[in-house]
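Entry 0007
Protein: Tetraspanin
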Amino acid sequence: LSPGTKMSCFTFIKVMMILFNLAMFLAGGVLLGVGIWVNVDGESFLKIFGALSSSVLQVVHVSYLLIVIGAILLVIGFLGCYGAQKESRCILMTLFSVLLIIFIAEIAAAVVVLVFTSLAETLLTGLVTPLLKEKYGMNDAFTQTWNVTMTEVHCCGLNNYTDFNNSYFYETHGSYPRQCFGVSPPLAHPHLRGCLPQGCFKQILKEIKTNAGVAGGVAAGIAALEIAAMAVSMYLYCRLDRK
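Output (structure tokens):
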């Protein structure tokens, strides 16, 4: 290719990278804003959007996830826009490194969840079960999140109802959470009749495997975008080295 053609190709890729990362930056800002909004004032969010769809209500329970994803998109979008605009090799390499770390982390998480299921269950048990015993019934946000999860997935605890044994909630109320009994709440004295035996981990894993095609397609799309962003950032990095 002639120098002019190479320069035109470089300019086109640079402009496309700026536009793509600008869109990512704006999307991250929106997600971060929504996450903060529903975390600080969830009631007003429900009043405005609650009637649109029952699925929208679930946004209230993933506000922290929205904040984290929004912040990550903001950082990636800013690095991509600024690095391409200023033609900064340092920032482009930083962007490539951040994307590579995220990509590796996603692959590792997928392998642990889908291949090493027992290992994932052991790790989650060690992390989540103590939190259930200490925070369920004490922390409103944590309690609400688990209530929605147990109601929607029809499960009890992470592994089963025994996760609530000797917990703050059980010691305070003398009963397992009513979500553990399905639609009908338990009677005055706690007993296990009608208590859901299955834990949420196995139920969620079952749902993931049932919808593996959709989840795999989404994951593949995200991975393709990340690979493309890494390839473009590395291309610009190498081209700047030759200028």
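Curator remark: The radius of gyration is 23 Å. The chain has nine helices and no strands.
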